[in-house]
Amino acid sequence: MEKDKYRYIEKVFLQLLREEREAAGVKQSDLATALGHYQGYVSKVETGERRITAVGLLVWCEELGINVDDFMKKVREALEGVSDVGVRKELKNDEGK
């Protein structure tokens, strides 16, 4: 179950990471330029193909004009009350897509 829970937390984290960029009205290519990377880097981070470090997250959030603590609070809030059964259900729904 721990592996499923980890996958679910990662899914929520990445979804919110993308949503925050979109809410800020920033294109992947513009964020990538600000971070000193190519657009593919941002895409790969947002899809989970590439991991982001803690320092990378700090800089990412800074470039979007958001506080990293506020971002992580959103992640925690999105995960509140999700049971192990809920995690399995969400992951099963994703597999069917």
Commentary on this structure:
By secondary structure, this protein is an all-alpha fold. 76% of the residues lie in helices and 0% in strands. The chain is built from 6 helices and no strands. It has helices at 2-23, 28-35, 39-47, 54-64, 68-79, 84-95. The longest helix has 22 residues, at 2-23. The mean pLDDT is 88.
Helical fraction equals over 70%
Give the name of the CATH superfamily. Answer: lambda repressor-like DNA-binding domains
Distance between the first and last residues' Cα = 21 Å
For the biggest sheet, the summary is:
none
Domain count: 1
Strand content: under 5%
Using the alpha-carbon principal axes, give the shape.
globular
Task: Look at the structure and give the mean pLDDT.
Answer: 88
What Rg, in angstroms, do the CA atoms define? 14 Å
CATH topology name: 434 Repressor (Amino-terminal Domain)
Q: How many helices does DSSP assign? A: 6
Content-based structural category: mainly alpha
What's the level 1 CATH class?
Mainly Alpha
Order of helices and strands: HHHHHH
Uncertain stretches: none
**Counted beta strands:** 0
CATH architecture: Orthogonal Bundle
Write the layout of secondary structure elements.
Elements: H1 2-23, H2 28-35, H3 39-47, H4 54-64, H5 68-79, H6 84-95
Helix pairs in contact: 1-5, 1-6, 2-3
